[in-house]
Amino acid sequence: MNPVYYLYLAALLFTIGGAGVLIRRNAIVVFMCIELMLNACNLAFVTFSRMHGNLDGQIIAFFTMVVAAAEVVVGLAIIVSIFRTRHTASVDDASLMKL
Amino acid sequence: MSFPLLTATAAVPAIGAIATAAVPAAKRTAAKWLALAFSLVTFALALVIAFRFVPGAKGPYQLTESHAWIRDFGVRYELGVDGIAVALIALTALLIPFVILAGWHDADPLEETAAPDSGSAAGNRRNSWRPTQGFFALILAVEAMVILSFEATDVFLFYIFFEAMLIPMYFLIGGFGDRAHVHGEEQAATQRSYAAVKFLLYNLVGGLIMLAAVIGLYAVTADQLGTGTFSLQQIVEARAAGKLELGTGTERLLFLGFFFAFAVKAPLWPLHTWLPNAMGEATAPVAVLITAVVDKVGTFAMLRFCLQLFPGASRWATPAILVLALISIVYGALLAVGQRDIKRLIAYASISHFGFIILGIFAMTTQGQSGATLYMVNHGISTAALMLVAGFLISRRGSRLIADYGGVQKVAPVLAGTFLVGGLATLSLPGLAPFVSEFLVLVGTFSRYPVIGIIATLGIVLAALYVLVLYQRTMTGPVKAEVRSMPDLRVRELVVVAPLIALLLFLGVYPKPLTDIVNPAVGHTLSVVDKKDPKPAVQVDAVPGGARHGHAAPDQDVEAAK
Amino acid sequence: MENLIALLVAAPLVGAALLLCGGKRLDRTGHLIGSLFAVASFAIGVALFADLLGRGAEDRTLHQYLFSWIQVGGFRADAAFQLDQLSMTFVLLITGVGSLIHIYSIGYMEHDERRRRFFGYLNLFLAAMLLLVLADNYLLLYVGWEGVGLASYLLIGFWQHKPSAATAAKKAFLVNRVGDMGLSIAIMLMFTTFGTFAFGPVLAATGETSEGKLTAIGLMLLLAACGKSAQVPLQSWLGDAMEGPTPVSALIHAATMVTAGVYLITRSGAIFNAAPDAQVAVVAVGAVTLLFGAIVGCAKDDIKKALAGSTMSQIGYMILAAGLGPIGYAFAIMHLVTHGFFKAGLFLGAGSVMHGMNDEVDMRRYGGLRTYMPVTFITFGLGYLAIIGFPGLSGFFSKDKIIEAAFAKGGTEGWILGGAALLGAAITAFYMTRVMLMTFFGEKRWDPDTTHPHESPKVMTIPMIVLAVGSVFAGGLFSVNETFVKWLEPVTSFEHGHSPVSATTVTAATMVVLVLGVGLAWAMYGRRPVPATAPRGSLLTRAARRDLLQDDFNHVVLVRGGEHLTRTLVYLDHSLVDGAVNGTAASMGGLSGRLRKLQSGFVRSYAVQMLGGAAVLIAATLLMRGV
C-alpha cells in the first residue's frame, strides 16, 4: 500500500483536531482535539520514517507520546480544578489570566 | 606576590555590605555602626594607596594586579591606578563615611519618628523592619563598585562594574525618600519610582550602547592582534607600536559608543534630565552619592578610556563636545536660577559644574585636565557639604520648596553659616578648593580656545546668582512662623559638615598634595592623545629684568610637572 | 623684616577665625579681640614702614615667599607677597583707618546682639584687603579681590532680617562678580601672552607684545576696576550698599575697598602706559563717573546715599587721574589717601548723627543739630571743608593736582577732562554744602518728643577727631617738597605734566567754582527753609533720585529679561528635552497598550494566532525554498 495515504489520513486527522480546538468550547473536547492533532503528527512521523527508511521519525513519535502523556496529566488536573471552582468546563470563561 | 591592596580596598566595602545586610532586624543601630566601621577601614586603605603611590614613577599604572579571568575572551582581572584614579578613590572613600553619618536616621522605621509607641503591632513591624540594614548595605555596595571601576584597567572589567552599580543605586533612589514629604507619602512614592526608573533607563541605554562598542573593540583587536584583548594598556601600546590600526570610521563609532555612556552618566546636556529627578527625590545623602561619587565615574572614564583608547576620534569630536559642555555650563546655571526646589537647584548647579569638568578634559591642555581632575574632587566635597546641609534643613521643615523657608539664619546660625560656606564653595570663591580647579579649567580652555573660555567665565556670574538667591530666600529676611522652632545643627551633623569645610579650606589654600599626584597622570594622558600645551606669545625669561621670579623662590617643581 | 609681611595678613585673619568659630563664649569680649588684632596689624605696618624709610629709595621693595600655591604645567601661582611703596601706602591706610573704625564700632554696635560676628567680618575684610594689596601676582590679588567682595557681602547684609539689606548685599556681590569676570579674563590673557601673571615679569615684559593684546588686558582690568570701585557702568550697587551698618560704609564703601580699582590700575601702570586706547577708556569712565556720582549726590535726601554718590564721584577723580598715566598715578593715590581720611570721617560723622537721631537717615528730618552734637559738627565740618577743596585742607591739595593733570593731558581731550573735573568740583561744593546745611543748620525738622539728639560716646568721637585731624593736615604734609610723589615715584614713575593753563590759573578757577557751588547751595538750602517732604523737583532731580535710571534699566533689561529667560528655559527643559525622552517612553507605552489587546485571555483566540503563525512560518519556508 502506498504510504502517502497515511499522510493524507494524518492531514485529515490534524485538520479535524485543529478545527475542533478552534470551534469547540468544552475544555475536555478541546483537549481531545489536541490529542488528535498530536497523534496525527505521530502518524506522519512514523510514515516518514517508513518512507525514508530511518528510525528518527519513530523516535520522535515516542517522544511525542511521552510529552502528550505528561500533558494529559497536567492538563486534566487543571481542567478538573477549574471545573471545581467555576462549575463549568468552557474555555471561554477561563480568561482571567489576561493582562 | 605583594599584598593586593587595590582588591582589598574594594573588597572591604563589599564584605561590609554583606555583613551589614546580615545583621538581625532588631539590631539596626549595630548595623549602622558596622557600616560606618567598614567605610572607615576603606578610607584608611585608600589613604594607604595614596601614600604607597609614587607620583611620577615609571609606567602609567601602579600597584597593578593582573589575573586571567575569562580566558576564551581575553578578559582579565586587571587593576591599576594612576594619579587621577588615586585622587578619585580617596574622594570616594572619604565621602562614604559622611554619607553614612548624614543618613543615620534616613532609613529608620517610620513609627520611630512618627509615634514612639502605638501598640504592639507597630512594635512588631519595627522588629521585623529590615530596610535600615539594606540602606547602609547598598551604600557600601555602591562604594565597592565605584572603587573597582576606578581601579579597573581592563575595559570589560570596568564595564561590568560601571553597569552593576546601577542596581544598588536604583534601590537607593526608589526605596528611600525624604521622610516628611509635604505632598504625602503616596505621591512621593510615585515620584520616587519615576525618578528611579528614569535613572535606570537612561543609564542602561548608555550602557548598552557602550556594550556594543566594547564588543566592537574586542572584534577589532581579535582581528588585528590575533588574540582579542580588553586590556587598556595592551591596546594603547599596540597602537603606539603601529600594530593596531582602528581605521578612522571604526574608531569614531567606537568612541561615540563609549562617550555616549559616559555623557549620560556625567551628565552632559542634553542627556541630563534624569539627574534633577534622581537628586530631587532621593534623600540628601543618596543625592550626594549620585552626584559626588557615581557621576564621577563618567567623567573619569572619559579621561581614562575615551581619550586613551581613541585619541584620533577624541580630537575629531572635541569641537562638538566643547560646545555641548559650554551649553551645559550656561544652561545648567540658568535652570538652577529658575528652580523652586532646593535639591533640584543643586542638581542643576551640578550639571553646570560637570560642564566645566568636561570642558577641562577636552580642552586637552595640562591645566584643563589637571583642573578637571581637581574639579571632580573639589566638586565632590563642595556639593557634599552643600547638599548635606540642605538635607539637614529639609529634614527639619519637611519641605524641599525654597518658598517654605525664610529667616533661618536668625534661628539656626550655624546651619546657615555652613550652608553659606557650602554655597560659596559652589560659586568657586577664591580661598576655597573649587576656585583652584575652576580657574585651572578656565585657563586651560582659554589658552587653546579663547572664545569658549570667555563664554565659560559667564558661568561664574551665574553661579553667584543661583547660590545667593538660594541663600537669600531661605536664610535671610523675616523669620517664617514654621521655621521659628527649628533647632540648630546637632553634634552628629556638625561632625559631618565641619571636616568637609575644613578640607575645602585646606585644598583651596594648599592644593599641592593633590596636584602633585594628578599632574604626571595628566601628562601621560596628553602624551597618548599627542597634544602639547600652547606656548605663551612672549618668553618672559628672555626679557631683561623679567626673570620669572624676582625673589628667591625655590623652583623645584617646574620639572615635576613634565 | 620681610618675614613680617605675612603677619600683616595673618593677624586679622586669626582674629576673624577666632571670632567666627569661637561661639558664644566670645560674645562679651569679641569686640575687644577684633580691635586688638586690627591694631596689631597696624603696629606691624608701622614697623615695616619705619624699615622701608630706613632704606634707599630704590631698595624699598620687599618680597616674602611662602609656598607654591598652584603649579600645573607652565601655570604657576605662588603664595608670595610684595611690599613696596604703593602697597605700604595702602597698608597704612587700611590698617590705620581700619583700626579707628574698629574702635568706633565698639560704641556704634554696642546694642547689637551679633556684635562679635560683626567684628569677625570686619577682621576678615582687613585680611582680604591686605592680601589684595600685598599679593605679588594677579591670581593672589584675585583672592583678596573676591575676599573683600565676600566681606562686603556679609557686612552689607549684616542686618539680614531686613529684606532690603539682603537684597542689597546680593546685588553688590553679583555686580562685583561681573567685574571679577574681567579680572579673571585679564589673568588668562596674561597667562597666554606671557606665560605668567606675577607682577614683576608681566610688567617688565609689556614692551615685548602687541598693543592689541595689552589693550585687551587693560580693558579687562578696567572692567574689574569698574565693578569694585563702583564706576559707570557697574556703579549701581554702591547706593544700595548703604544698607550696611555705617562703620562698614565708612571703611569698605568709602575709604578702602572701593578704591581697590584705583590700586589695580596704578599697579598695572606699565600695561596701561603701553596701551593708549585702554587709557582713553579709563579716563572716559573716570570723567563720566565723577559727574554721574556728583549729580546723584545732589538729589539724595538719605545722608548716607548722598555721601555714597560723593564717594563714587571722588573715585571717579582717582580713576581719571590713574588713566592719565605717569602724570597722574601719584596724584590718584594721594587723593585716595586724603579721601580715605575725610570720607571715612564724614561717614563716621553721619553714623554719629544717626546714632543720636534714632537711626533716622532722611536729611529732611534733621536740621539745627550743630548745638546738640558739637564734636560731630566740628569733625564733620572739617571733613566737609576738606572734600570741597577748601584752601589748605587735604582735599585742596590732592584734587587740585588732579584737575591740573587733567588739563595737562593736552589737546581737546585735556580741555574736556579738565572741564569735567572743574565742573565736578563745583557740584561737589554744591552737594556737600547741601548736606552740611540740611543736617547741622536751619530750623529743627524733627519731633522733639520722640527724638533726643545727643553727642556720641568718646569711643566714637575720638576716631572721628583723629580722622578730622588727618583730613586737615594730610594733604599739606604730602605736598611739602612733593614728598608723596617722590615716595611713590620708584613704583609708579612720575612725569610733570605740561599744562596749557598755569597752575595758578587752575587753582583760581577751582576757587571760583568752589564759591559758586557753595553759594548756590546756600541760596537754595541756607536762606530758605527746607521742606520736610521732598518737592517734586525737576526732571533731572527726579532722575538723579533714581540713580539716573540705571536701576530701572537694569531691572527691565537684566532682571525681567533674565527671569523670562530662566522661566522659558525651565519650561523648555521640561517640555522639550525631557519631553523628547518621556515622549519616547509614552509612545512605547501606547504601542504596548495596543499590543496588549491581543492577549484577550480566550484560549481559542490564542489557538487561532498559533495556527496563523504556523501557517506564516510554513509559507515562509516554502517561499524561501522556492527562491
Structure notes:
The complex is a heterotrimer of chains A (99), B (562) and C (627). Chain A is mostly helical. Chain A has a single domain (4-86), classed as Helix Hairpins, CATH 1.10.287.3510. Chain A has 3 helices and no strands. Chain A has helices at residues 4-23, 27-52, 56-86. With 562 residues, chain B is mainly α. Chain B has one domain (5-531). In chain B, 71% of the residues lie in helices and 3% in strands. Chain B contains 22 helices and 2 strands. In chain B, strands 1-2 form a two-stranded antiparallel sheet. In chain B, a hairpin with a 4-residue loop joins β1 and β2. Chain C is mainly alpha-helical and 627 residues long. Among the domains of chain C are: 283-535, no CATH class; 555-626, no CATH class. Chain C has helices at residues 4-21, 30-53, 85-108, 115-134, 138-156, 163-194, 199-204, 211-228, 237-240, 246-255, 260-267, 269-273, 276-299, 303-323, 329-356, 374-388, 394-408, 411-440, 458-479, 483-492, 503-526, 539-545, 550-596, 603-626; strands at 62-72, 75-83. Chain C has a two-stranded antiparallel ribbon. In chain C, β1 and β2 form a beta hairpin. In chain C, α18 (411-440) packs parallel to α21 (503-526). Chain C is globular, with a radius of gyration of 31 Å. In chain C, 58% of the residues are buried. The mean pLDDT of chain C is 88. Chains B and C meet through α9, α14, α16, α19 and α20 of B and β1, β2, α5, α6 and α7 of C.
A few lines on this structure:
With 99 residues, chain A is mainly alpha-helical. Chain A contains 3 helices and no strands. The mean pLDDT of chain A is 89.
Helices and strands in order:
The complex is a heterotrimer of chains A (99), B (562) and C (627).
Chain A: H1 4-23, H2 27-52, H3 56-86
Chain B: H1 5-22, H2 28-52, E1 62-70, E2 75-81, H3 83-102, H4 110-114, H5 119-127, H6 131-151, H7 155-164, H8 166-175, H9 185-225, H10 232-240, H11 248-265, H12 274-281, H13 284-309, H14 311-337, H15 342-363, H16 366-397, H17 408-411, H18 413-426, H19 433-448, H20 450-475, H21 491-509, H22 512-529
Antiparallel strand pairs in B: 1-2
Chain C: H1 4-21, H2 30-53, E1 62-72, E2 75-83, H3 85-108, H4 115-134, H5 138-156, H6 163-194, H7 199-204, H8 211-228, H9 237-240, H10 246-255, H11 260-267, H12 269-273, H13 276-299, H14 303-323, H15 329-356, H16 374-388, H17 394-408, H18 411-440, H19 458-479, H20 483-492, H21 503-526, H22 539-545, H23 550-596, H24 603-626
Antiparallel strand pairs in C: 1-2
Helix pairs in contact in C: 1-2, 1-4, 2-3, 2-4, 3-4, 3-10, 3-15, 3-19, 4-5, 5-6, 5-10, 6-8, 8-11, 8-13, 10-15, 11-14, 13-14, 13-18, 13-22, 14-15, 14-17, 14-18, 15-16, 15-17, 15-19, 15-20, 16-18, 16-19, 17-18, 17-19, 18-21
